[in-house]
C-alpha cells in the first residue's frame, strides 16, 4: 500500500534531505515550501509527490494545501524561521511571526492531518525542534521559546494520541550546515563546529536519518521522544 508523507519546508536544507530520505524508504513525499518553487519542484520530482506552496502559519493556506494533497500517513513539521535579536528589541510582528510559523505552523498542519489519522487509528508525526529549545540560546529567545514549545507539544500530543495508535516524536538538531545558519558567518560556524564532542557541524542528512528512523516501523514502540541529532552537543 502506498505510504504518503508531507514534509513542510522541504525545498532546501533539512526538509529537503528528509523528503529524499523518506522517498528512499518507500514514502511518496509531498514537498511544502513558501518561496522556492523551482527548488521544491525539483525535490518533488524525486519523491513522487507534489510541490505545494503554503505559509504554514496561515490556517486557510494549510487547509487549501491539504485539499490538494489529500490525507497523509506521516507529517514532518520542519518549516521554520530563525534569527538573532536581543530580547528587548523584539517587536510584536517579529514575536508573532516566530510563534506563528514555528509553533502555529505545527498546530495548523497537525489539526489538518488528524481527522484522517484518528479515523484510521494510525499515523506518525515528527516535529523538528532544536537543541536551543532544550537549553537556552542568547539572542534567540523567541526562536528558543518556539522550539521548547514543540517539545511540550510533542510530549503532550503523544499522550493524547497514543490510544489512537498515532505516534508523535521530535528531532532536536544541533548546528546543521544549511542556509539558516550562514548568517552566523564562517568564524562563528568554525567555533560551533568544535563544540559538539563529535567535532563537526551536522549535515541535513544527519537529521534526515533520525526523522526517517522515527517514521519507520523500527520505531513502532517510540512515542513522545525527543531525539537530539547534535553530535553530542548537549550531552
Ligand atoms: P532553511 O535552510 O532556512 O530552510 C527553511 C525551509 O522552511 C525552507 O524550505 C523554507 O521554504 C521553509 N519555510 C520557511 N518559512 C515557511 C513558512 N512560513 N511556510 C512554509 N515553509 C516555510 O532551514 P533548515 O536549517 O533546513 O531548518 C529546518 C528546520 O530545522 C527548522 O525548523 C529549523 O528551526 C530547524 N533547525 C535547524 C537547525 C540548523 O542548524 N540549521 C538547527 C536546529 C533546528 P522556502 O525555501 O520556500 O523559503
Determine the number of helices (DSSP H or I, runs of at least 4 residues).
8
Q: Write down how many β-strands occur, each being a DSSP E stretch of 2 or more residues.
A: 7
Percent strand = 15-25%
As laid out across the biggest beta sheet, the strand order is: 3-2-1-4-5-6-7
**Can you give the helix content as a percent range?**
40-55%
Structural class category = alpha/beta
Provide a compact summary of the structure.
By secondary structure, this protein is of the alpha/beta class.
Q: What attributes characterize this protein structure?
A:
globular, seven-stranded parallel β-sheet, 235 residues
Structure, described:
The protein has a 7-stranded parallel β-sheet, with helices on both faces. Strand 5, helix 5 and strand 6 (166-173) form a beta-alpha-beta unit. 46% of the residues lie in helices and 17% in strands. It has 235 residues and is α/β, with parallel strands linked by helices. Helix 1 (13-24) crosses helix 8 and helix 3 packs parallel to helix 4. It is globular. Residues 8-15, 32-36, 55-57, 78-82, 101, 128, 130, 173, 175-176, 178-181 line the site of NADP nicotinamide-adenine-dinucleotide phosphate.
Amino acid at each position: 500500500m502506498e505510504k504518503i508523507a508531507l514534509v513542510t519546508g522541504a525545498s532546501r536544507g533539512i526538509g529537503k534531505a528528509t523528503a529524499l530520505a523518506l522517498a528512499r524508504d518507500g514514502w511518496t513525499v509531498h514537498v511544502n515550501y513558501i518561496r522556492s518553487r523551482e527548488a521544491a519542484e525539483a525535490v518533488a520530482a524525486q519523491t513522487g509527490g507534489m510541490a505545494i506552496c503554503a505559509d504554514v502559519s496561515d490556517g486557510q493556506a494549510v487547509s487549501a494545501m491539504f485539499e490538494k494533497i489529500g490525507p497523509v500517513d506521516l507529517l514532518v513539521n520542519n518549516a521554520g524561521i530563525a534569527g538573532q535579536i536581543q530580547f528587548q528589541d523584539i517587536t510584536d510582528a517579529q514575536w508573532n511571526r516566530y510563534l506563528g510559523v514555528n509553533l502555529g505552523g505545527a498546530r495548523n498542519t497537525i489539526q489538518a492531518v488528524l481527522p484522517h489519522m484518528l479515523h484510521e487509528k494510525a499515523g506518525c508525526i515528527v516535529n523538528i525542534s532544536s537543541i536551543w529549545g532544550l537549553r537556552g540560546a542568547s539572542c534567540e529567545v523567541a526562536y528558543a521559546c518556539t522550539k521548547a514549545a514543540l517539545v511540550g507539544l510533542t510530549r503532550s500530543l503523544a499522550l493524547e494520541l497514543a490510544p489512537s495508535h498515532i505516534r508523535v516524536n521530535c528531532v532536536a538538531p544541533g548546528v546543521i550546515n544549511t542556509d539558516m545558519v550562514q548568517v552566523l558567518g564562517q568564524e562563528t560556524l568554525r567555533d560551533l563546529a568544535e563544540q559538539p564532542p563529535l567535532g563537526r557541524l551536522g549535515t541535513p542528512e544527519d537529521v534526515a536519518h533520525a526523522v526517517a528512523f522515527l517514521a519507520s516501523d523500527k520505531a513502532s514502540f517510540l512515542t513522545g521522544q525527543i531525539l537530539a541529532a547534535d553530535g553530542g552537543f548537549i550531552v
